[in-house]
Structures are given as C-alpha cells and as structure tokens.
Amino acid sequence: MPPGITARHPVGNMTRPIALVGMPGGGKSTVGRHLARHLGLPFADSDHEIEARIGGSIRDFFAAHGEPAFRDIEQEVIDALTQGGARVLATGGGAVLREQNRRALHERTTVLYLRSTPEELFRRLRHDMHRPLLQVRDPLRRLRELHRERDPLYRRTAHFVIETARPSVPTLVNMILMQLELAGTIDPSSTGGAQGTA
C-alpha cells in the first residue's frame, strides 16, 4: 500500500461514486476535479450544488438562516449526489456531522478522507474570508476544535484515509489512483495520464 494511505474498509467495483471528505481547505475540490478528469467521470461539488439551490453564497445563507437550515439542505443534496452512478464528489467539511450523510456516503460511495493537520489547514486558509465557521477571532484554535470533533467522523465514514501533509495535487491523485487500482475499484487502463499533471 502506498505511503500515506490507510485502508479503512473493502470497496466494490467502480459502479458507484467516489466521494472526498475532510476538513475545510483540505483540497477536496481541487483533488476531486483532477481525479474526475483522469477517470473520465463527471465531477460534482456539494457546496456548489447547494449554492445553486439556494441562489446565493453559503456564507450569506449561514448568516441569514443559521447552520441547522444549511445542514438540512446539505443533507438533501448529499442524498441526491450519492445516487445515480459513477462520479467524483467533493463534499463540504461538515457533511459528516449528520449520521444520514455518513451512512449515505459510506454505503453508496467509495469514500476517501483527505486528512490534513489543523496547522497545515491554517496556513492555507488564514486569508480566506469565505468560510463561515472560520470567521472567528482565533481561526487556528477553531480549526483544532473542528479537527478534534470531526476527525473520528471522517474516519468512520471513509474507506481510505489519505494523509495530505506533503504531497502535491498530482502526487495525491496518483496515490489515490494507485490505491483504487489495488482495491479493484477501477480498471488500471482508466488512469492513464495522471503522472506529472499540474
């Protein structure tokens, strides 16, 4: 098994979605787009689907309606996106907070947890003003709290845990493709061209 990847649960053949879970700023959307391109699959981002549904930004929706209302919509979107065949799905950082989402993701998709440390995330996100849960006085402390709360949930949901501390996006994608091949989830012939992609 490649360094940095820990198998969590056995997975089936590539007839269902691949879902990426992890903390805000962990690279789910970026890695997901690259992975989808290499596999020739559609890509979906649950946060983008939510914004299309609410007709505005998640940040504004949070401010106006609160987190529970947002999580209700997120649950509906996750339910829809985990059905309907093979695709690559990037989920929001808090998608695993609801048991219904964890169950839908784990039972219907192959779940990859992109695991980053709070310190690594802080370096990436310290200037990001668009993440509602990080608009606090001490974002690093908040990231540490979120990581402590969510890491067990990500692990419980995931089939594979992938450490993202050092690898570049191309390296992460190649690690994922190699693991999915070893697990028999994808055909090796479907992964050509991943090496060296920016």
Name its key features.
198 residues, alpha/beta, Rossmann fold, 6-stranded mixed β-sheet, 48% helix, globular, disordered C terminus
Structure description:
With 198 residues, the protein is α/β, with parallel strands linked by helices. It has a single domain (5-182), classed as Rossmann fold (3-Layer(aba) Sandwich). Helix content is 48%, strand content 12%. It is built from eight helices and six strands. The chain has helices at residues 28-39, 46-54, 58-65, 67-81, 99-108, 118-125, 139-157, 169-182; strands spanning 5-7, 18-21, 43-45, 88-90, 110-115, 160-163. It has a six-stranded mixed beta sheet, with helices on both faces. α3 (58-65) packs across α4. The longest helix is centred in the C-terminal third of the chain and has 19 residues, at 139-157. The protein starts with a strand and ends in a 16-residue tail after the last helix. The relative contact order is 0.23. Residues 193-198 have low confidence and may be disordered.
User: What is the CATH first-level class name?
Assistant: Alpha Beta
Query: What is the SS-derived class?
Result: alpha/beta
Q: What oligomeric state do these chains adopt?
A: single chain
What amount of the residues lies in strands?
5-15%
Low-confidence parts, pLDDT < 50 over ≥5 residues?
193-198
H/E series, N to C? EEHEHHHEHEHHEH
Number of strand elements: 6
Summed up:
By secondary structure, this protein is of the alpha/beta class.
Write the layout of secondary structure elements.
Layout: E1 5-7, E2 18-21, H1 28-39, E3 43-45, H2 46-54, H3 58-65, H4 67-81, E4 88-90, H5 99-108, E5 110-115, H6 118-125, H7 139-157, E6 160-163, H8 169-182
Parallel strand pairs: 2-4, 2-5, 3-4, 5-6
Antiparallel strand pairs: 1-6
Helix pairs in contact: 1-8, 2-4, 3-4, 5-7, 6-7
